TrEMBL record:
Keyword terms, alphabetized: Cell membrane, Magnesium, Membrane, Metal-binding, Transferase, Transmembrane, Transmembrane helix
UniProt keyword Electron transport present: no
Cofactor: Mg(2+)
Name of this protein: Phospho-N-acetylmuramoyl-pentapeptide-transferase
Membrane topology: Multi-pass membrane protein
Length: 414
């Protein structure tokens, strides 16, 4: 079992990754090779994609709600997809990983669904799509996952004596899978408003899920059926890392909807795949395992983009407009307005998500009491750093008109 209290926690960390006494090892070296392959291929492919995007006219011209001030090519998601595709193809040639492709269709399903979502994103990046058409494309991609067997079947809830295990029927499983995918896709799409933001969040989230999936792999005694979520997470993390040098402020290329929707879809698919690898015989529904299901893990590491999505839907609905109508009131816009620079906003959101990711993953590896204390300290530090510009401005502002335009002067600049 992963969750080990007190003095045994360090041994649990070692055994989880194949070091220390007992348990089947996790192919860390091979997963790192998949990660590095995705990073290198994405980095190299993105340069070529940038040239093609400029030649094809897939360029983002600055609008009133945008932060960038220079026309910037899109379609970066195609380079990321290529990195994932090549990395997973490379994994099929590694003896330690090849059997993980034979047990189920999870990886082929994600690649096919990913191709569909990238295609929808490319069309939107180049010619533009209305919200309904784009949503239909998202549901279609999620439906491919369901048809090919990637679905939620079991949900753990920690409520009541010993918790509750809910087993979904086929219809419920399909609806939940599509709903989770749609939320994740749109959360990443909504948060993709600053250079390097979506790629960084995707990197943090996928690394966290990869660690969790490696723990599942260990708990299953190295069962090859538990390989797909770890492999997919490693490939996605590499693709996000390989794209970041091109996209960090000032960005030379945007991932566009093709990239942000791909990240959201893959995170949803990885969580869904991992949900089917938890052994009922090993865990049942006891303790706090329900708090550490893949869905809630994703919810923890994706808290910021999902919160941004929910606030946007409420805000726009109350204003009487479509929830998909663009505006300039996202969380990153608000951070810019209180005085943070472009880069500081991105790093701040990295900090928030990183702290939450540590809390989610650390609960499985260390003493929960220690994790809670560190998590509280990390959240307090993040809150203080976030509030510094407002506190400084309130202390330094002389009597008279409020310097309301100060935030605007920082937008788009480090």
């Amino acid at each position: 079992m992963i969750v080990v209290p007190g003095s045994e926690s360090l041994l649990a960390v070692g055994s989880t990754f194949g070091y220390g006494g007992g348990g089947a090892g996790v192919p860390i070296r091979e997963l790192l090779l998949v990660f590095l392959t995705a990073a290198v291929v994405t980095f190299l492919a993105t340069g070529a994609v940038r040239v093609l995007a400029i030649r094809s006219g897939a360029v983002a011209v600055p609008r009133d709600r945008d932060v960038h001030v220079q026309p910037t090519p899109r379609l970066g998601g195609t380079g990321m997809y290529l990195g994932v595709l090549v990395a997973l193809g490379f994994a099929t040639q590694l003896p330690a990983l090849t059997r993980g492709f034979e047990f189920n269709n999870d990886i082929p399903a994600v690649l096919i669904a990913g191709f569909v979502i990238v295609l929808v994103g490319v069309v939107d990046d180049r010619w533009g799509l209305d919200a309904l058409t784009k949503f239909v494309g998202q549901v279609t991609a999620a439906g491919i996952l369901v048809v090919m067997g990637v679905s939620w079947y079991i949900i753990y809830l920690p409520f009541g004596d010993g918790g509750t295990t809910i087993v979904l029927d086929q219809l419920q499983a399909g609806l939940m899978t599509v709903a989770v995918a749609a939320v994740m896709i749109n959360a990443m799409n909504f948060v993709d408003g600053l250079d390097g933001l979506a790629a960084g969040l995707g990197l943090i989230a996928s690394v966290a899920i990869c660690v969790f999936s490696a723990g599942l792999l260990h708990d299953q005694g190295g069962d090859v059926s538990a390989y797909p979520p770890a492999l997919l997470a490693a490939a996605l993390a590499g693709a996000c890392l390989g794209f970041l040098p091109h996209n960090f402020q000032p960005a030379r290329i945007f991932m566009g909807d093709s990239g942000s929707m791909l990240i959201g879809l893959m995170l949803a698919a990885i969580a869904t795949s991992a949900s089917g690898r938890i052994s009922l015989n090993a865990y049942g529904s006891r303790d706090l395992l329900g708090l550490f299901t893949p869905l809630l893990l994703v919810g923890a590491v994706m808290f910021v983009p999902i919160l941004d999505l929910l606030l946007a839907v409420v805000r726009r609905t109350r204003a009487g407009v479509s929830p998909f109508s663009p505006d300039k009131m996202h969380l990153h816009h608000r951070l810019l307005q209180i005085g943070h620079s472009h880069r500081r906003v991105v790093l701040l959101i990295y900090l928030w998500v990183g702290v939450l990711a540590f809390g989610a993953v650390g609960t499985a590896l260390f003493d929960r009491r220690v994790v809670v204390l560190l998590l509280a300290g990390g959240l307090l530090f993040a809150l203080i750093v976030t509030a510094v510009p407002s506190l400084r401005r309130g202390r330094e502002s002389p009597p008279g008109p409020s310097p309301q335009n100060r935030a605007d002067s920082d937008i788009g600049y480090p």
